[in-house]
Amino acid sequence: LTPYDEAWAWQRGFLERALERGDDANDAAILLQHPPTVTLGAGSTVDNLKFNVDRPPTGFEVRRCERGGEATYHGPGQLVLYPILNLARAPHEADLHWYMRALESVALEAMIELGLDAAKCGRVDGLTGAWCDGHKVAAVGVRARRWVSYHGVALNVCPDLSHFANIIPCGIGDKPVGSVSQLLRG
């Protein structure tokens, strides 16, 4: 478990090094879990929180960050991948929509590798993330500076799903959040 602020500092460090080195920079990836944390994207509002932002649930932290998107929960049992990639350099593309679809593909492949039914997994038109059997199983929120990416994708492997009740996840109130373990149990 890595506190959100520590992982955020790592991302910013990799980002600054990549910006300084330009095309000589190596891509990097951070894979971890966080203690219970709610993050708010750059343009999000507190309307998607079901608690007073000044008094979060016991044991939760709240952080505003630069990524796109609305309120997202991070916690134990959720694998979070923060790729720091120069999207302007092959094999990547300097296109954030392409990048978000690529992260969704990574999450979908992981979900299927972990045993979920490929026929039930995919995308939902007009919504970001990776889905299975009507449940959002992975959230995507990214940012790039001079085409170097940071933030990333969070895959719900076996988190405490009750923690998602504290927010309207990604601003989507009419679709449930799920996990790989929940969906494998049927």
Structure description:
Residues 23-186 form the BPL/LPL catalytic domain. Keywords: Acyltransferase, Transferase. It comes from Ostreococcus lucimarinus (strain CCE9901). One of its GO terms (molecular function) is lipoyl(octanoyl) transferase activity. Substrate binds at residues 67-74, 139-141, 152-154. With 186 residues, this protein is an alpha+beta fold. It has one domain (4-184): 2-Layer Sandwich (BirA Bifunctional Protein, domain 2), CATH 3.30.930.10. Helix content is 23%, strand content 26%. It has 3 helices and 9 strands. It has helices at residues 4-21, 96-113, 180-185; strands at residues 28-32, 37-40, 61-64, 71-74, 78-84, 121-122, 130-132, 135-145, 148-156. The strands form 2 sheets. A 6-stranded antiparallel sheet has the order 1-5-9-8-7-6. A hairpin with a 2-residue loop joins strand 7 and strand 8. The longest helix has 18 residues, at 4-21. The radius of gyration is 16 Å and the shape is globular. The two termini are 28 Å apart. The mean pLDDT is 96.
